[in-house]
Design brief:
Length: 303
Amino acid sequence: REFLLDNYVHEIKNLEVDYKEDNVKIQIRENLIIAPQYLIMKIKQLIQSMAFQTIIITFRYIKNAFILTEKDDLKLKSLAQNYNCEINKIDIETKKEFIILPKGKNISTSKYIINESNQFYSSLSIWRKLSISNNIIEIHKSYDLTVDITIISTISDAIKENIDPKYGNGYFESDTGKRVLFIEWSPDLSQENNNQINESIKKFISTSIKQIDMFCTNIVKTIAFATTDWENYDNRKQLAEYILNEMINQLGSKHYSHRSWKIIFLFSDQQNEFFNEFSQVILSIQKEEDDYEQFFYPISSML
């Protein structure tokens, strides 16, 4: 009642004026409505619509970052019931989809549009690739890709794949047909000599390629390198340059130039800075082959 008296006195008076010929009287303080029987329900509904304005409140939370207990759920439902509210829960699924957009070439574009475009562009996980002979090098910020074999270099990744590190490096194939090549390696943080680091990378890349060529030449086309813990190296740009340059050298050699391999370096969402370093290095040596930019972008849909 106090809410109506504080906010809707004029609206209530207007109701009485609208139904003056029916002798309608509305006395909020006394909780009394004087009206013909056929109008009482309608007048009540009009007054209730003033008292209970419909407002949509959207509460969003990141999946797995917020847990609503059964007790909390009951409290929320009770609160909604007390205030004549309704709860609609909408489940949303978000997936990263591959997008291809043409590059703009209009030099007369306004600065505002250019700034907005640059801001959007900087937020994306741009898909980069290099073509070497018949082979391709790509980088992806996703571990959900379908590949023929995955090369892992850390003990933590080996354990995840149910590989016992004590047996050393080797080729493994699970009951489900998943192929994994385990070659233990990491950028040596204690090595300050660039030549030593470069030689270590050369050995790792060449060994990986030779092992694949030896064990599964005819069944492998897509080869993924897991980059777990590589970002811990201080000079990430230098590391990216050394790795990519050595991969280019290997794929361009007479031993592998006739292969039609796709080499993919995989990065997690926690490796954003390292991914960007790889992306910039590829961009610096990438040949512009078309007028399109390609990237992954999160697309949400209701379940």
